[in-house]
Amino acid sequence: MGFLRAWIRGNAFLDHLKPFGRLFSATAIQNVIEFGLGDGTRFFLEHAAQVKSVEIVTQRSAADGTKWFAKCREQYRAFPNWHPVFMVCDDFLEAADRCAIERRLYPATIDDRYLKSLSGIVSDVIKDASYDLGFVDYGLHIRGDLVNCLFGRTRIIVAHDTNSPAEIYGRDKIIDHPDYVKVRYSKGQGTTFWFHRDRMQLAEVI
Ligand SMILES: C[S@@+](CC[C@H](N)C(=O)[O-])C[C@H]1O[C@@H](n2cnc3c(N)ncnc32)[C@H](O)[C@@H]1O
Q1: Which of 34-48, 57-71, 158-172 has the lowest mean pLDDT?
Q2: Do 97 and 108 form a contact (C-beta atoms < 8 A)?
Q3: What is the mean pLDDT of the chain?
Q4: 165: which of 78, 96, 101, 118 lies 20 to 30 Å off by Cα?
């Protein structure tokens, strides 16, 4: 773990890798699906059997997002276990993301059609395999709704940046799912874990 510690110290945006290091040391995790890709993707590629990384970008950031995706593709091209996916928001998600960041309003109170778009994307990207862990750390601000979409679909759900304002990320809209226990790692940007009751013993390692 020495290398991992040194790596994390140099990058505040990777502070979620500390509790992830403990989790992956405690249990074998086969398939990971992450929303949002970057330097942290390497950790999953080196510790899980298969990794799908889903990059969803807004229409207004599509040009930058395309470049970022290409850069990451180049960076991880040596990993045969990596399955990257790129997509641009439809109009409903685009409007919802704008509403969250610019008006600091929960978008569903204005127009909830983006929830169907988001749920459709999640259904589509997870249909090829059974994923043990879903990680929410993408560029969109609709993060709470994505966590809600993952309940019942992955046994472990993790969201990064959970110390950020609730009204931007919709963190306060995450349901208290009866089948999951929530554990907060509050250091740095904040990382929150939800463990299905089948895997509840893992809550102690965080
Ligand atoms: C902060 S990154 C975190 C990604 C990953 N989970 C990690 O730990 O490295 C979240 C999102 O920010 C966006 N992003 C980060 N750096 C970027 C860059 N240099 N250019 C364009 N988008 C970027 C991407 O959309 C990415 O999915």
Answers
A1: 158-172
A2: no
A3: 94
A4: 118
Q: How confident is the model at residue 1 (pLDDT cuts 50, 70, 90)?
A: very low
What pLDDT, in 10s, does the model give residues 171-196? 999 999 999 999 999 999 999 999 99
Q: Which of 7, 33, 37, 58 to mutate to test the pocket of ligand 1 (most atoms within 8 A of CB)?
A: 37
Q: How far apart are CA 108 and CA 117, in angstroms?
A: 12
Which CATH number describes the domain made up of 2-205? Answer: 3.40.50.150
The response to whether residue 38 sits with its C-beta less than 6 Å from ligand 1 reads yes
Confidence of residue 10 (pLDDT cuts 50, 70, 90): low
Instruction: Report the pLDDT averaged over residues 69-97.
Output: 98
- Atom from ligand 1 closest to the CA of residue 16: 8
Give domain limits for the chain. 2-205
